[in-house]
Amino acid sequence: MKKDAANFGYSSSTIVDGSLVTIVGIGNEFRGDDAVGLKVVRRLEISKPAGVRTIELTGDQSHLLELMCSTDALIIVDAVQSSAPAGTIFRMDAGKERVPENLMFFSTHSFGSLDAIETARTLRHLPRCMLLYGIVGKDFSHKIGLAEEVENAIDVIEEKIIEELDSVRAHQNVWK
Amino acid sequence: MNNRVIKVDYIARVEGEGALTVKTKDGQVSDVRFRIFEPPRFFEAFLRGRKFSEAPDITARICGICPVAYQMSSVHAMESLFRAKVEGQLRELRRLLYCGEWIESHALHIYMLHAPDFLGYDDAIQLAGDHPDAVQRGLRLKKTGNDLVAVLAGREIHPINVKVGGFYRLPDKSDFDEVLESLKRARDEAYETVLWTSKLNFPDFVSDYEFVSLSHPDEYPFNEGKLVSNKGLNIDVRDYELVFHESHIPYSNALQSTLRNPRSSDQRTPAQHNRGAYLTGPLARLNLNFEKLSPLARKAAEEANMRPPILNPFKSIVVRAIETLYACDEAIRIIKSYKPPLESAVDYQVRPGFGFGCTEAPRGILYHRYLIGEDGLIKDAKIVPPTAQNQRMIESDLRNFVSSNIKMSKQDLTLRCEQVVRNYDPCISCATHFLRLDISEER
After folding, report:
1. Where are any strands of DSSP class E within A3-158?
2. Which of B16, B61, B125 sits opposite A30 (nearest CB)?
């Protein structure tokens, strides 16, 4: 699994232990690798620490704007289209930086996750912590099931997000 | 004279993907091709062999913007076959659910997707920078629609409470307390939206459309009615396939819909038989059902100078605002008179045969037809979304618009062509914000 070292590591955003943390998996079950975000949050639904909520978002991503107003920390997991190999994981602190335009989050619907993030930034609605995990997909055609490389990325990203949440808890004084 | 090509290679984030090409030669439009790839074809195959009762939840996955519409058309199709009569408060709750979907879908389109066109912005992000109050108003409206859907459908994102015959669970009257207050505020903001959109600058463009929508004698159409047009169509939903025809076109994976006169003994010529493209969606609904709007929605429409006939498709943004206001008004009426029925669904007998359903999705009529076997399994399914039905009319609009604006600069013409597409459909509209554009001139 290739990863971008510069983009891994922990956020410089503030996640305060005890705050409401929401993890949103975005995708379409019937569009091949686009489902990877949904698969990740289904795993996290079982393995997540207490106090973290998980949401599957399968269509209109303008819902993210509303979620941003009701949570302290939002972690988005979504499939991306990129020239990087399938299964590559990108991590961005969207609260600190604009998401690169050349990283296209696949969406079959109107208002994508990047639109939601940037609109919220403009309206000053971003939550205190706004992280974005993207998994590079291979096949977004009408089918059910992930490519092997994308499937393999699920374990890695699940582990990274759990570590991120645990780290927040362990170092809350530092992170405040 | 130069030949020109306006080409949009890839339209993503639609009810399928698509592309747009307009070619001109010697000052005339020589070719228009608007192509989409339809996910419903995939779902039609996926439905075969599934139980009839699964259709509402499976088809709801076709579109994240209008899952309620897919649920509604599917349950009405099954109920038509099973002779189930959903009436009274259960019927009212279905209208209420549709109100929620119209509010959220229309608010998204008006503020986040369509308004930037008229105000000179690339997208809603730029619009939010200069007009934060307007965007916040749109988001509040949308949230009210979401909240209404969530109360009725179990959750706002993919409704799970609809079933053949009614609902799985009925809300208590008190479940609506909070959303009722939101709706009252939303109604005021929807009225404001009608006036706000009516002051936008619209290109001078009209067309002689055949508008098609449902029409019901007593109400603005959501779930039920006959299929009518301003040019004499008046049929039952079960006769849809006698007059609406889908055909393959060589450059697209999608089927294009056209309207035909039913074959009869008068031996019409093929030219007389074919009526061609038609328009479905808010513009059609308003033109054909204006008198069925609530008094408040009619008042707003008249204040905005929006009495039928409205033949400028760019004004569909105002029409959506009027329908948003109507949906808020109608939702308040239904909630105020709501008395939970004793049963959450009516009884029915599963029967084999064909079932037909057509309801008014935010973007227009959505037709479903199922063949159910003796075992209650789906043997065949046909789903015709409004996007596919409008595909040929979008091409017609592009052809007419480019023809009458042939001297416009390439940049402006391309932008206007995108707008022509956005006039029709939130999913396609959004896609055009995502386009890679390539305009070239051929000598």
Report:
1. 21-26, 52-57, 73-81, 89-93, 104-105, 129-136
2. B61
Q: Please name every residue paired with B259 in a beta bridge, in sequence order, or none if there are none.
A: B244, B276
Looking at residue B2, its pLDDT comes to: 55
Return the minimum-mean-pLDDT range out of A82-86, B166-170, B299-303: A82-86
Give me the residue from A58, A66, A110 closest to B430, CB to CB. A110
pLDDT tens for residues B335-378? 999 999 999 999 999 999 999 999 999 999 999 999 999 999 99
Q: Which residues of B touch A107 (CB under 8 A)?
A: 12-13
Which residues of B fall within a CB distance of 8 Å from A60? 64-65, 104, 108, 157
Domains defined along chain B, listed by start: 41-209+279-402 (1.10.645.10)
- ipTM value of the model? 0.80
Q: Do A62 and B112 touch (CB under 8 A)?
A: yes
CB pairs under 8 A between A and B: 93
Interchain proximity A62–B113, CB inside 8 Å: no
Res. A103 pLDDT band, cuts 50 70 90:
low
Chain B neighbours among A 53-72 (CB < 8 Å)?
55-60, 62-63, 65-66
Q: Which residue of A has its CA nearest to B63?
A: A59
**How confident is the prediction for chain B on average, in pLDDT?**
87
Task: Domains for chain A: give ranges and CATH numbers.
Answer: 19-175 (3.40.50.1450)
Q: Kindly determine whether residue B146 and residue A118, on different chains, have CB atoms separated by under 8 Å.
A: no
Query: With bands split at pLDDT 50, 70 and 90, how would you rate the model's confidence at B191?
Result: very high
pLDDT at B45 over 50: yes
Percent of chain B, pLDDT > 90?
Answer: 64
What is the percentage of chain B residues whose pLDDT exceeds 70?
Answer: 86
Task: Pick A109's closest partner by Cβ from B129, B142, B427.
Answer: B427
Percentage of residues in chain A having pLDDT higher than 70: 77
